[in-house]
Amino acid sequence: MPQRPERTARRDRAPGIAAGGDLVQLVVDYAKQETVGRVRGLGRFAVLGAPAAVLLSVGVGILLLALLRALQTETGSAFRGNLSWLPYLITAVPASGVVGFVSWRIVSGPARRARRTTERDA
Question: Are 72 and 79 in contact (CB under 8 A)?
Fold first, then answer.
């Protein structure tokens, strides 16, 4: 009994890929999955992260300015004359602390952990 030609043709093809067009479609779908999803996630991060960063920066700046003005006006005559520069120095200490904290978080944040994981996997 002769075998059907379609069964023989199926055995010759690679399993899971029916034709050349399916391979192209598979590659296109994979590329979309790996790029479009990540770009959407990045867009969402930027849409929520950028305004938050601006508002947080403005808030910290206002707090530092409030500290400076409080030191200048509410301390009486303690910071008058030759010591008028001292409120600026006192305000610079927490400002440099904020800058140091932000720099530390940027350097040792999630991107560094992800990079270490990627280097280990390679």
Answer: yes
What is d(CA 76, CA 65) in angstroms, rounded to the nearest whole number? 18
Instruction: Give the Cα separation of 88 and 77 in Å (integer).
Output: 15
Let me know if residue 28 belongs to a domain: yes
Q: Which residue has the tokens 């005559």?
A: 77
Handedness of CA 117, 115, 49, 57 (dihedral sign): positive
Nearest to 63 by CA among 95, 102, 100, 105: 95
Instruction: Evaluate whether residue 88 is within a structural domain.
Output: yes
Most distant pair of Cα atoms in the chain: their distance? 113
User: If you search the block for the tokens 């867009």, which residue do you land on?
Assistant: 43
Q: Best-predicted range by mean pLDDT among 3-17, 39-53, 79-93?
A: 79-93
The answer to whether residue 11 is domain-embedded is: no
* Structure tokens that stand for 12 in this block: 């010759």
pLDDT score for 9? 47
